Amino acid sequence: MSETDPNDPLCHDDRLGQAVLRGSIAATLTAAIWAALAIFTKTEMPIAAWAVGVAVGTTMLLTTKQGSLRLGLVSLGLTLFGLVLAKGLIDHFGTLPRYLAEFHDPADARDALRALDWRQRFGLDDLGFFWTVLALFSAWRFGRGKGGG
């Protein structure tokens, strides 16, 4: 939609700013919850990626009351931020300490982590990739206001 389209609910008010703020909070909270669960259970649970996308998209849609292409794209970006944040937290507070405990030498732990394929390191095997794509798609659909139908 263009900047002057009267049907675009985000053109004439400040709800986009509120939606971005609330979507950022939703992305951060769901990423932190996912990371905490993964760290304490020592299982990454790739399905949690989907929760990040749904939480961000739904939060932004509920804030603006009407979806749009712009809102969908912003929610997709915030979901990507949440996924990267969760993976970083899991890697730093979960994977790295486990490797340090196993190898007892930081250099050996770093070498072992570097030897991992990047898909293994960041949980993007086939199932992880599926849930990541579904999270991004869900955020985009919910942000556009088309999540339920």
Structural overview:
The protein has one domain (15-143). It has six helices and no strands. The protein has helices at 15-41, 48-64, 69-103, 106-115, 118-121, 126-143. α1 runs antiparallel to α2, α2 (48-64) packs antiparallel against α3 and α3 runs antiparallel to α6. The chain is elongated, with a radius of gyration of 18 Å.
- DSSP helix count? 6
Shape: elongated
Could you tell me the radius of gyration in angstroms? Answer: 18 Å
N- and C-termini, Cα separation: 21 Å
* pLDDT < 50 runs, ≥5 residues: none
Please give the oligomerization state of what you see.
Answer: single chain
Largest sheet: none
| DSSP strand count | 0
Q: In percent, how much strand structure appears in the residues?
A: under 5%
Mean pLDDT: 82
SSE ordering: HHHHHH
Brief account:
This protein has 149 residues and is mostly helical.
Question: What topology emerges from the helices and strands here?
Answer:
Blueprint (H helix, E strand, L loop, with lengths): L14 H27 L6 H17 L4 H35 L2 H10 L2 H4 L4 H18 L6
Helix pairs in contact: 1-2, 1-3, 2-3, 2-6, 3-4, 3-6
